[in-house]
Write a structure and sequence with these properties.
Number of strands of chain B: 0
Oligomer: heterodimer
Helix content of chain A: over 70%
Order of helices and strands of chain A: HHHH
Strand content of chain A: under 5%
Number of helices of chain B: 6
Distance between the termini of chain B: 16 Å
Largest sheet of chain A: none
Chain lengths: 138, 138
Amino acid sequence: MDSGCSRTKPTREQSIQRYSQKLREAVSTKVAEEGRRTQMLQLVDQVEALHLRFSQDTADFVERYRRLNADYDAPRAAFDQLFSDYNARRVKARSDVLALHFKLASLATADEWDAIGRAEVKLYEKANAARPAEDGAT
Amino acid sequence: MTLSRRERGQVLILLGAWLLFGGGAASALIVYDRPASATKKAIKRVIADADRRDAALSDIRQWESGQKKLDKRVRSARDELFTTLRRRDAQPSEAEPSLARIDAALLEMDRGFLEMRFRLKEHVTSAEWAEIGARAAQ
């Protein structure tokens, strides 16, 4: 990283790092009761693990697509199957993440949820803002 | 830019989060594999025949225009979903209409992506296809 960056606005990676920690911090600071706090932090860990696993699924999907796409004569059916398999994984992972979200919400009091819910949604909003549309990441 | 292992993990988590709530197979390919601009650039360099080159570029532009409209639909449904998730007392069934709208738009995006891929191939020889793939991935 260029040391000159320190005087400009934060890099995307710095912003991402900051916001992905906010959810855990919100739980740690807002939930005074140790038992619930531990449970909630475990849920946050599970959410992160799911996102990480799904990122790996996505990387595998992209690699399979590259191989298939390189074959000029690959049939449409092979692409349809590849996309369909990936989307099934996405829907399953999203369903698992949402189940964890609802568990998290059910453990929080209204006062606690104000900060935690805001941090959680912020995490997803930042994830959207962080989309490297022009970077062609990997 | 080189990311630390931790930063790389955070980026993957957030990309996973974005893809879970706002991207399907086609979006994953555009983000992780290559943006359309790279493919257009490669086509301009590789296809010498002006008619075939223009036809290929026109197919991509037409696809991009359709994707923009679908992307707006996804964003709108995703914002609606996040508003629901922000409420502590929201029930899982309340998220379903937004999720259904997201999935319907993503399915259309995937279909459009594959249709564009196969239309593009009609204007490109197998040798050009290989070269475009290699150049666009650079």
